[in-house]
Amino acid sequence: MYIVKPEQMKRIDEIAIREFGIPSGTLMEKAGRGVAMTVKSLLERVDGNRVAVVCGQGNNGGDGWVCARYLLNWGYEVEVVQMGEISTLKGDSLENARHAIGMGISFGEYETPPELKEFNVVVDALVGTGFKGAPRGALNLFINAINQSNAPVVSVDIPSGVDGENGKVEGSCVRATVTVTFAFPKLGLLLWPARHYVGSLKVVDIGIPPEIALREKIMYETNDPKELVSYLPFRPGDGHKGTFGKGVIIAGGLSYTGAPFLACEAFLRSGAGYAVLGIPRSLYDIMASKLTETVIKPLPEVRKKRCLSLRALGEILAMIEDADSLVVGPGLGRYCETMELVQRLLMRVKNIPVLIDADALFALGKAPEVFEKIISPVVFSPHPGELSNMLGIAVEDVLNHRLTEARNWAKKLGGVLIIKGNPTVIASEESERI
């Protein structure tokens, strides 16, 4: 699923209206109905049917008026709390307010908010995805009133107070139970600290033609579980462990026996059939007691350090001759001889994909010339600190620019880059997923 920035969503709306002939009122109608459906599902789980729809002055408020009209038609007790005067609304927002008022909906116009504690659900339709900065004046008061209601809150498109582009929250902010966003998730909704306020995120289809998104050259996507399932290879009913792929995991060192255990378990749980773990010889008994489905190969070690020795290179190369993939790094430690082993190994691997993780990433950071000599397809999986070491940049730069620079970093490193975190960013030279 595509992820858009607020200005991209604005252009997409404009193209849908101008080139595809979709009336702006139709988009607002579908958006408001989507919010109303979410409110309806919440009301079915609470004792009571009173809803306050708190509307601002823009299109977000117009969505709120549409939502209120649907809820009224469905028999709920609805009151619209309008921030400011209805006469100052414009376009579709004003038209939808007039429709709802014509149907007899209860409403009030307020400069300061009323108490909302008697309502069973509150709808936040104050400001939309274009909002930036800290809420001030009346907006700040209305946000606080929503938060003090103690009722479930449904935010329209974005919780009021969140920056839709970068997820920043610079002042008061609505704490939503559910956020109903339209057409595509907005980038800021997936970032922190905004995620603390979003609650459950629901995306409502409002009829935007999908080809518009392709024209916009959207940079970001999110992993859809349904889409991921389509990538899984067919598993024949008469298959066996050899059918489903062999992977070699080179991992483990003194004090780090958990990392190879988790790596092997993850490999098998992903659907692979045959895991072979290469570890320092002295760790064999420990790993044999922890792993029952993995073949364990004890390898030459630096005895006093209980980490892999350079002498293990030949045995590892023999292990991967018939392998389908290789994982290098979890828990290896950072002893100089082990780091040299990793560097030499990565320059010798051919024809199978390699996942480089943890201490193997540190080894590459120590010898950046190795990057250019790796010929296998590579996936790098650093956390921000490890990526900082690999690229020779500050951790703060990784954290601040991981979304905007991930593709460039992937190109520089020469593979797929998985930047661990919340959210995790997956990037190649061609695409980026969150």
Secondary-structure topology with pairs:
Elements: E1 2-3, H1 6-18, H2 24-43, E2 50-55, H3 59-73, E3 77-83, H4 91-102, E4 106-110, E5 121-125, H5 137-147, E6 153-156, E7 178-182, H6 195-198, E8 200-204, H7 210-215, E9 220-221, H8 225-231, E10 246-250, H9 258-269, E11 274-280, H10 284-290, E12 294-299, E13 301-302, E14 307-308, H11 313-319, E15 325-328, H12 336-348, E16 354-357, H13 359-366, E17 378-381, H14 384-391, H15 395-413, E18 416-419, E19 425-427, E20 432-433
Helix pairs in contact: 2-3, 3-4, 12-13, 13-14, 14-15
Let me know the CATH homologous superfamily of the largest domain.
YjeF N-terminal domain
Number of domain modules: 2
What general form does the structure show? elongated
State the name of the first-level CATH class of the largest domain. Answer: Alpha Beta
Distance between the termini: 10 Å
